Amino acid sequence: MTDDIHQRIREAVDSSDVLLFMKGTPLFPQCGFSSRAIAILDHLGVDYDTVDVLQDAAIRNGIKVFSDWPTIPQLYVKGEFVGGSDIMMEMFEAGELHTLMEEKGVARSAA
């Protein structure tokens, strides 16, 4: 991975409290795993940003090296890699993902 791609990914990760690298967009996810990841984040009610890896092959390949994780989507919270959609689902079902969002200060306050 080139330093330029690594830098672009690092800047994206650092610029957003909750960032999902995904295939497609939140309105039009391009794979079931990305769709599930968006559904989880929407259910949690957190503000998040996304990067559509289908728009940039360098990012699509680079993120796998950056995180040492072979699949997309990939979730980052406060600059830390959390996991892909399977890990997100397991953490969500166990209540751990909501707890993580609260601990990182990104969970939406209960109204």
What does this structure look like?
It is a single chain. The protein has 111 residues and is of the alpha+beta class. It has one domain (3-103): 3-Layer(aba) Sandwich (Glutaredoxin), CATH 3.40.30.10. 49% of the residues lie in helices and 15% in strands. The chain is built from five helices and four strands, in the order αβαβαββαα. It has helices at residues 3-15, 32-44, 57-67, 85-93, 96-103; strands at residues 18-22, 49-52, 74-77, 80-83. The chain has a four-stranded mixed sheet with strand order 2-1-3-4, sandwiched between helices. α1 crosses α3 and α2 (32-44) packs parallel to α4. The termini are far apart. The mean pLDDT is 94. [2Fe-2S] cluster binds at residue 31. This is Glutaredoxin.
Identify the overall geometry.
globular
> At the fourth CATH level, what is the homologous superfamily?
Glutaredoxin
What is the fold named in CATH at topology level? Glutaredoxin
The CATH top-level class label: Alpha Beta
Strand content: 15-25%
Please, how many helices? 5
Succession of helices and strands: HEHEHEEHH
Question: Averaged pLDDT, please?
Answer: 94
| Count of DSSP strands | 4
Spatial strand arrangement across the major sheet: 2-1-3-4
Give the domain tally.
Answer: 1
User: What CATH architecture would you give?
Assistant: 3-Layer(aba) Sandwich
Main sheet, how many strands, which sense, barrel? Answer: 4 strands, mixed
Helix content: 40-55%
Class by SSE composition: alpha+beta
User: Which parts are unreliable, with pLDDT below 50 for 5 consecutive residues or more?
Assistant: none
Pfam families: Glutaredoxin
Domain Glutaredoxin: 18-82
Protein name: Glutaredoxin
InterPro entries: Glutaredoxin (IPR002109), GRX_PICOT-like (IPR033658), Monothiol_GRX (IPR014434), Monothiol_GRX-rel (IPR004480), Thioredoxin-like_sf (IPR036249)
